[in-house]
Amino acid sequence: MSSGRATFSSRLSGGWLVMLAAALLALRKPWALHTPQLWAEDGSIFLIQNDLLGLRAWFEPYNGYLHLLPRLIAWSASHVADVAAWPAWYNGVSFALTVALFARLASSRIALPEAARSWLVLALPLVVGTGEPLLNITNLQWVTALFLVAQLFATRPTTLLQRLGDLAILLVVGLNGPFAIVLLPLFFWRALRERHVDAWLAAAAIAVCAGVQFFLLSRTGTALTLEASQAGLRPLMFVSVIGSRLVTWPLFGPTAVRAWPIWLHAVLAIAVIAPLLVWSLRRDPLRPVRAFIGAAFVLLTVACVYRVRADLWDDDNLVNGDRYFYLSRVLLTWLVILEFAASPRWIALVARGICVLSLLTHLPHFIIPAPPDYRWSEHCAPIRRGAPTQIKTLPEGYLLDYPGRPPRR
User: Fold this and answer.
1) Vertex 317 angle, CA 312 and 319, to 5°
2) Are 133 and 326 in contact (CB under 8 A)?
3) Which single residue of 74, 103, 146, 335 could bond 50 by disulfide (Cβ 3.0 to 4.6 Å)?
4) Model confidence at 8, in pLDDT bands (50, 70, 90)?
């Protein structure tokens, strides 16, 4: 390892790294903070159900499973802020939780390679995408799922407070989406490798969350796929979408995704992703880290692409379902970053070149354009009174149909 790489990592350690990542996040989607508006189910599910059900909304499944964090944020907003400030509260807390994720990854408690840690954290706000998962409570589950991935690398707690904090993170995040189900095997794999009580406690916490979410999915009868669940899998399109979203778009830009044939995207997926996964299993000190990241990538990618049934899409417009690819992009980027110090030297140079190419390709699109401002504060008075109303929210064309609040006794 060269001293230059070590110096960069040490200078960006701790608070400086977190502040830089937070600044990049704010710069990526500035309008979500200075002109906050509700996004999709922010209003139609979490705001309305909190208003009508109160605490009972915490235990109300949506899409077949619990979304604990959005429920908590909507409930807290209704108790600490006026209706006009609810979008600011929703987005502000989402921002704070994302910064908390940066801090978690920057912490020495998470046993990631120090020379690569800065780049691993910065990948979260820099990774290519529409920004759909960022700074809204509807898609907060896609960001907070990385707390579970980070916990796979957590060192053993040395105090009761650390132990309780670890379990709290696992339980809250595990009940905030279906990711505990997908990542459960990795927590048992870790427990079997490390063979200490804290690893087994973590696995047990994730198992409880996975059991709750799986029970709710089976009880509500929600399909494992969002659409056309009875249709047969189209393998070529399935692999093509993985290639277009995870290889073509990051490296060659959106125009290439639309212009190139699906077989080429599929070839790129196999030619780039498969060798990287195989190479990551080579024997060296970083093998356990790469193995967990690679396994998480495979589990989450297959689950998410099948869940959204991307293989049935007629048009890969790069907007539809982009949130389903955020975790895969981050984890794949992490695998590339971990090759920055690889031997032979040419592999390290290729890995750095890939990241530089991706940054240069998407630098002109880094700041996500501001959507229309629907002036929430000027139209939310009926909600304050509990009267029925309809209000435009994001994404463009979305309408919050507020049914009114029954009189409270």
Assistant:
1) 105
2) yes
3) 74
4) very low
